[in-house]
Amino acid sequence: MSASGSSVVFMSEAITPFRIDIPQADLDDLRNRLSTARWPSDLPGVGWTRGVPLTYLRDLAEYWRISYDWRKHEARLNEIRQFTTDIDGQNVHFLHVRSPQPDALPLILTHGWPGSVVEFLNVIGPLTDPAAHGGDPTDAFHLVIPSLPGFAFSGPTRQTGWNTGRVAAAWAQLMSRLGYERYGAQGGDLGAFVAPELGRAAAGRVVGVHVNAATFGFIPFGKVSDEERAALTDAEQARLGRLKEFMDDQSGYFKLSATRPQTLAYALTDSPVGQLAWNVEKFKEWTFPAAHLPEAAVDRDLLLTNVMLYWLTGTAGSAAQMYYENMHANSWHTEPATTPTGVAVFAQDLPIRRYAEYGNNVTHWSEFDRGGHFAAMEVPDLLTADIRAFFRPLR
Question: Domains in the chain, please, with CATH?
């Protein structure tokens, strides 16, 4: 990886142009590791119930080794203006795409886990240049898309304490450094932690917060009483069921990341097959419909490009540290937020409005019968339209 070009200074802080340039030796090493992978056994007839099936993963790993072309996708990423800057002692990488509409609203997009900035590739064009994609030019955004500290080119973290609240404070600095004093925030998964925190940290500057794949702050905390449950709609009852399934059967990654991220780091940093399985499991379980293979919802090459950002930067472990930091921060907000908040609930999502309204100023709520956790990759059309609709009256 290399950064090239001269630095630009905003408010006495350097912002340096960045270009992805992975050494060929790293790509050769990946191919060699995939060629010599040690494979476990698996049990017949269990499908995905105990994790990623051996037959599926061997096929995907072989495609990764033989057919996937990193240089093609590296070139696509490098078509987007990228930069790095130091905030609070941490290197922060971000994409910065200005709209052809000079009065566009600035918007900072925050990805989650196991995602990256790759999540947003298919929404950049429609959000920055709606006129070129059949939309209204007055809905245009200037986009800032950072890599979370510890993730990909913003990693690894070098200090403890990088929870989502600290990230939100860093994003406020980033937007000021770019000269954006009035802007929106959007995020999914961990990004749906960061965006509301940013709405609190910079309440006078953030005009609105839009989230998808939201959990904490948007779902019940603790047991739901029989009385509460009886008052829920059928769709909300189904979300409670998915939440229970997640807690009972899909949260092992969370418990390990939130308690022993360093131990996890050794396996994922040393084995590309391990890294692939760790990520693709969640693309299977969290995309819509979950009964299908992840490629039914997300293009296989796009999925692998996302995995590559973890593998090539060796940041699977430092990305997991954010779960540890959040669970040990002891600093969750309890006061209600005042910033207008929009919630997009896709078919695999969990939010329930009555619980979201306890701590958020919910002014926009949309529910969809398709799309999953990775909405920007799965249903970019729906996500784009909902972001536009939410921010339209807030411009």
Answer: 8-37+47-394 (3.40.50.1820)
